[in-house]
Please model this.
Amino acid sequence: MSLLIKNGEIITTDERYTADIFCEDETITRIERNIDKVKADEVVDAKGKYVFPGFIDPHVHIYLPFMGTFAKDTHETASRAALVGGTTTFIEMICPARTEKPLDAFELWLGKAQGKSACDFTFHMGVTRFDPEAERDFKEIVKRGLSSFKIFLAYKGAFGITDEELYAALTLAKKLGVIVTAHCENADLVLELQKKLLAERKTGPEFHYWSRPPVVEAEGVHHLMTFAEMTGAHVYTVHTSCEESLAEAIRGKGRGVNVWVETLIQYLLLDRTSAEPNFEGAKNVMSPPLRDKKNQEIMWKALADGSVSTLAADHAPFDFTQKQMGKDDFTKIPNGIPSLEDRINLYFTHGVKGNKIDIQRFVDTASAQAAKLFGLFPRKGAIQVGSDADLVVYDPNYRGKISAKTHQMNLDYNSFEGFEIQGRPHVVTVRGKVAARDGKFVGEFGRGQFLKREPSHF
Ligand code: URP
Ligand code: ZN
Ligand code: ZN
Model:
């Protein structure tokens, strides 16, 4: 199997140049100005187009038992959506119940993806409890190829952990060289605010915001910074939404905490009015909530200047029927705004075309940084001889509109309905094979590989 991509403008984090790329089997084997006289099974004309390394989404939920229901996508529908949108690798959160044995959860999640996913995948291991039995399992799971944990400071009574468990989890992570990704919101404050709002009969989706205001998230980040400072663990704040929590991470970094920050496309383009004024707003209920518009500029700048390392989707799809579970009580609305499919096109349109982010920084934040932080680089996130042939030939002249009528995700709405996009993947390859072409999935379910990763955060 061989693939030749001709005359594209290759964009990586530190170079941009026009060249041909030749791939044999699953790997990039030559990058030269002119590659002729080779026999390729497939030739892609990339003239006038960019060639990006396959995009990596470091935060997705696919199999997700949550808030009394299950997220809607399967690994088939999610990987199809990812590939059509240019994402060739995703990192899914394993979120076990507290009663579940971590090793069983790892095997369950792996079994759900293996043989189903069309794109490559790996997992962050959710630490939703910590005791001697769980600790043994976490060590075994790291040996089996996961080198990142996920903890929740929110969701008390579900995935949330105590401070004692947090300290133990970070201590173990430091010892094993594992980075810890964290959902930062103070769970007790959320519960108290929810009780207060419901007592005042404030039950609509617009009150979700008031149960988790910026200070609740900032306290969570501050809390994580303190524990990371005490243990020396390397940490990563997922779905960072606003100025207040970003400031806590920057303050932590300033005093030597090893912290990296992720934000989401949702926070850059939607604001809290999207969850108002009636129950339709439930579609846009997620945690932390969509924020005041003024935060968008701050998060764009932080992506551009490096204070924020990655731009993720936090894909968590619940359809409108599921959202109705919270019709009379916003605390029962399943949290999540799906964006796995549209993350890259929206980021390119508003970031690169909108002059908010340089095209190389775009590649860095949507691909290379995730690969570097989570032990996938340079196999992924790079266009180099020897890297996996995960490539996105991107057409910057495409014009279109996002709609639930045409998207690939298993969902009856799209929070970005009607948003214009200026650019879309023309061809997407996974390890040398074309998997998506001009908005259509042409890949193979089950071809996606589980990516084993080595610890590197000592
Ligand atoms: O609202 C969200 N973010 N849903 C998915 C679960 C999580 O907290 O990441
Ligand atoms: Zn979260
Ligand atoms: Zn999440």
Q: What stands out?
A: Residues 214-231 form the longest helix (18 residues). Residues 61, 183, 239, 286-287, 314, 316, 335-336 surround N-(aminocarbonyl)-beta-alanine (ligand 1) (CB under 6 Å). The radius of gyration is 21 Å. The first strand starts at residue 2 and ends at 11.
